Amino acid sequence: MAENMRVLILFFYLICATGLFGQFWIQKASFGGVGRHRATGCANSHRGFMGLGHVNGTGQDISYKDWWEYDPSSDTWTQRADFPVSTHGAVSFVVDNCPVVGGGSALSTQFYKFDPSLNTWTPIANCILPNPGDSQAFAVNNRGFVYQGNQLAKYNPNTNSWSVCATAPMTFGNWTCSFVVEGSAYIKGGLQLWEYKPLHDQWLQRASFPGQSTGGSSGFAIEQHGYVTSGYVGGLSVVTDQVWSFHPATNTWQQEIEFDGAKRRFPVAFAIHDRGYIGTGTNGINFNDFWQFNPTDNTIGIEESSAAIMVYPNPVSDFITVLGDPTLTVDQDITIYSLDGKLHLKEPRLLFKQNVDLSHLQTGTYLLRIEQEGHILYQEKIMKR
Questions:
Q1: Which of 132, 159, 320, 342 has the highest CB neighbour count under 10 A?
Q2: How far is the C-alpha of 100 from the C-alpha of 43, rounded, in Å?
Q3: Span 4-28, average pLDDT
Q4: How many structural domains does the chain have?
Q5: For residues 157 and 139, is the Cβ–Cβ distance under 8 A?
């Protein structure tokens, strides 16, 4: 009787909770320019900025110089003054609440500062690196940083000058990504992750990236976590929609809800008001769509789905039971991953009350997920005895 009552309550809750899935990524107003890739973008305290980039033309790339401002409060794009030259593969950062853009295909050491209030571009001191394009730039404590290979340079807006920082322990190739959390920058090169501490001018190796992307990803940071999204896998022809978060306090990665847009490489990403944004990029088709990632919704969704779907016993010795609404089982899979992202089990979810054999797993911690067409509908950490 108690079991039947529990099932009825669960069934009712599932009906109410199904609308929560898929709210972690929200499509916003499309980028104001045409679709492109290898664009650049950044954000100040209340606006996002994006532009430049290119498409592959017949015999010659077509580069752009248009520059756009995004207002998250009204979900609108406004075209601003064009960048001085058409270019792609440029890098950008924000100091004094103003974007600074440079490097790339048409520039060598030249950088320009955009003043949103005046809608003007002004040249700044040339970078001391020969051409920091197709890499990444970031800002910490109102200082801009760009890197090329294993060299890192710092820009001081107060003196309009550049200085050399400590040499990185690895040589970063093209198409890396970076994010900044609590005064430290994190650079992902291939599957390696390195932390740079500007205060101490020091590099530290952190936990390796467990996801698919080997390059062409984009990064942003919100709520003391860094996020890496999209990119290519091994070569340019294979792309991914995976999203991973890095938790500096525990030096661990966690897989998040997959990006809801098309898989792609070379998107632009930034964060405003604890929301992540990603747009443009290519998979052979050049995109101008634009998406918002809401980590609060992500957390709420996981909590709500945990209440809506019951998984027991936990810890588990041999069999674990997944209990949930039978109307949700169409084209769904139950999957088991280790914390390094390795898939250990995948079976169709066919029953309202389904027993899953985990006796073959070694003792440890795993992630049990319910997935549908590559999207995570439910996730819970389980302990295998």
A1: 132
A2: 11
A3: 54
A4: 2
A5: no
Given a cut of 50, is residue 303 above it in pLDDT?
Answer: no
pLDDT tens per residue across span 153-176: 999 999 999 999 999 999 999 999
* Shared domain check, 116 and 213: yes
- 105 and 204, same domain (yes or no): yes
- Residues 147, 214 within the same domain: yes
Judge if 171 and 40 occupy the same domain.
yes
- Distance of alpha carbon 167 from its chain centroid, rounded? 26
What predicted TM-score, i.e. pTM, was given to this entire model?
Answer: 0.75
What string of H, E and C letters represents the secondary structure of the chain? CHHHHHHHHHHHHHHHHHHHCCCCEEEECCCCCCCCECCEEEECCCCEEEECCEECCCCCCEEECCEEEEECCCCEEEEECCCCCCECCCEEEEECCEEEEECCCCCCCCEEEEECCCCEEEECCCCCCCCCCCCCEEEECCEEEEEEECEEEEEECCCCEEEECCCCCCCECCCCEEEEECCEEEEEECCEEEEEECCCCEEEEECCCCCCCCECCEEEEECCEEEEECCEECEEEEEECCEEEEECCCCEEEECCCCCCCCEECCEEEEECCEEEEECCECCCECCCEEEECHHHHHHHHHHHHHHCEEECCCECCEEEEECCHHHCCCEEEEEEECCCCEEEEEECCCCEEEEECCCCCCEEEEEEEEECCEEEEEEEEEEC
| Side chain identity, residue 59 | G
Q: How far apart are CA 196 and CA 187, in angstroms?
A: 8
Torsion of CA 109, 170, 233, 379, to 10 degrees: -120
Question: What is the rounded CA–CA span in Å between residue 149 and residue 347?
Answer: 44
Higher-pLDDT residue of 202, 340 = 202
Rounded Cα distance between 33 and 13, Å, is 43
Tokens representing 338 are 């280790």
Q: What tokens were used for 68?
A: 């756009």
| Final residue of a structural domain among 293, 323, 341 | 293
